[in-house]
Automatic annotation (TrEMBL):
InterPro entries with a match to the protein in the record: DHS-like_NAD/FAD-binding_dom, NADH_DH_b, PNTB-like
Protein name per its UniProtKB record: NAD(P) transhydrogenase subunit beta
Positions of transmembrane segments: 6-26, 38-55, 61-82, 94-112, 124-148, 168-187, 193-213, 220-240, 246-264
One cellular component (GO) term of this entry: plasma membrane
UniProt keyword NAD, yes or no: yes
Key words of the record: Cell inner membrane, Cell membrane, Membrane, NAD, NADP, Translocase, Transmembrane, Transmembrane helix
Keyword Mitochondrion: no
Catalytic reactions on record: NAD(+) + NADPH + H(+)(in) = NADH + NADP(+) + H(+)(out)
NADP transhydrogenase beta-like domain ranges (all copies): 9-464
Pfam families documented for this protein: PNTB
Length: 471
């Protein structure tokens, strides 16, 4: 083994250590940013070591280096532009889009090596051909499914479940065709035809599966597809015999799988039920702007400001409506005004608040909200009975008391115990329902008052009114 090989192996080992440390640091909002930097450093080192490996091998032509350089420049520029220009509310769909890129790239690596070396009958071993088949199948499903998920999150594809007639039979047939084509690849039969069938069947399967899943389940789907991409990357590592890809893919697959399980538990929905689809109707912004006929009590800004200003403790419950209105800075300003008047303010964060894990934490951190004020559901729920006011902003299903009784679409789903506060103020743009497609029983509670307005304008108005009371 040459000195260059030893150096590359050591760099790969150090990069893998950075990935593990980075994942550990991401367990806490306070250290997540540092963890992201550590992981990024590890990836940069791994890329540099891989380039050194290519230089040492001498197999890349001048044209190849030009293409490789252009690819690196274009990819880096696209990533930097996306990171700086995409709004925080659009981060989930960006993550899904990047996940599609990873799955597609892994599938392309497998297909390229299969075509180049001729499958099990050529230079590839049977084990390598199995890895190729799994790589293409899983990577293509992750690629197509992630694109559809990103479209649903962006609003380009309807968030409602799209249930095609006979979809169960069709999906089963597609899965069977994909597995059969993979088997033919491994057996060395009709290889090019089998490869084409495998790619097409996997792509269509990914599209149809995600189309049938409602917007409420998209965070879990994105996490699952991320795990699939990790597995596909690991398979690609086996194909090209690159330990770094194997390690990185395995870490992504394992962490994505664990996160998927945790999120499914937070929604009290099995992964099977999520993949079957058909749940929820999507966030309904067209609902009535008044709710008097349903016994809902509204409140004006001045009265709401009085309740907040003269409270001892306020627990804020942010939801996707806050993110959609980009009102995190206005919320933080209101909280700081209340705190200057002696009011204790905490933020109750549901595990699936927003549209991806940690979405709400990052959104609030962007507005300079201290991490210490962001409280997880299990920690903050026992404190709601001691709160004078629970201020709900754009959160729907995660506050619905209907989850506590059987027979509803969200039965058993862990929720924030907002209705146990002394009083509840809900800022919502309309009386439309949430993703689960059912009315929120919190809104008809005798202690609840509805402030029907866009979150941004409502918080600005409340802040102005509270300022006149705390001076």
């Amino acid at each position: 083994m040459s000195a260059v090989d030893v150096l590359i192996r050591l760099v790969y080992l150090a990069a893998a250590g950075c990935f593990v440390i980075g994942l550990h640091l991401m367990n806490s909002p306070g250290t997540a940013r540092h963890g992201n930097r550590v992981s990024g450093l590890g990836m940069a080192a791994a890329v540099a070591a891989t380039l050194l490996l290519l230089i040492d091998s001498g197999t890349v032509t001048t044209t190849g280096w030009i293409v490789l350089g252009l690819g690196i420049l274009i990819g880096a520029a696209a990533g930097l532009y996306s990171a700086r220009s995409v709004r925080m509310t659009a981060m989930p769909q960006l993550v899904s889009l990047f996940n599609a890129v990873g799955g597609g790239a892994a599938a392309l690596v497998g297909a390229h090596d299969f075509l180049r070396f001729g499958g099990a009958g050529g230079e590839l071993t049977v084990a390598a051909t199995v890895a190729v088949a799994l790589d293409i199948l899983i990577g293509a499903v992750a690629f197509a499914g992630s694109l559809v998920a990103s479209g649903k999150l962006q609003g380009w594809v309807p968030s409602q479940p799209m249930l095609l007639p006979g979809r169960a039979v069709l999906n089963t047939a597609l899965a069977a065709i994909a597995v059969a084509a993979a088997g033919l690849l491994v057996a060395g039969r009709v290889e090019v035809t089998a490869l084409t069938v495998l790619v097409v069947a996997s792509l269509v399967l990914g599209v149809l599966t995600v189309l049938a899943i409602g917007g409420a389940d998209m965070p879990v789907v994105v996490s699952l597809l991320n795990a699939c991409t990790g597995v596909a990357v690991a398979m690609a590592g086996f194909v090209i015999e690159n330990t770094m890809l194997i390690i990185a893919g395995a870490l992504v697959g394992a962490s994505g799988g664990i996160l998927t399980k945790l999120m499914a538990d937070a929604m009290n929905r099995s992964l099977t039920a999520i993949l079957i689809g058909g749940f929820g109707t999507g966030d309904d912004a067209r609902g009535r702007t008044t709710g008097e006929e349903r016994g809902i009590q509204t409140i004006e800004a001045d009265d709401a400001a009085i309740r907040l200003a003269y409270a001892n403790r306020v627990i804020v419950v942010p939801g996707y409506g806050l993110a959609a209105a980009r009102a995190q800075n206005e919320l933080h300003e209101l909280a700081e005004v209340l705190r200057s008047g002696g009011v204790r303010v905490d933020y109750a964060i549901h595990p699936v608040a927003g549209r991806m894990p940690g979405h709400m934490n990052v959104l609030l951190a962007e507005a300079k909200v201290p991490y210490a004020q962001m409280r997880e559901m299990g920690e903050i729920n026992p404190e709601f009975p001691r709160a004078d006011v629970a201020l709900v902003i754009g959160a729907n299903d995660v506050t619905n008391p209907a989850a506590r009784r059987p027979g509803t679409a969200i039965s058993g789903m862990p929720i924030l115990d907002v209705d146990r506060a002394e009083s509840v103020l809900v800022i919502k743009r309309s009386m439309g329902h949430g993703y689960a497609g059912i009315d929120n029983e919190l809104y008809t509670d005798a202690r609840t008052r509805m402030f029907l307005a866009d979150a941004k304008s409502a918080l600005e108005t409340l802040t102005a009114s509270v300022k006149t009371l705390v001076r």
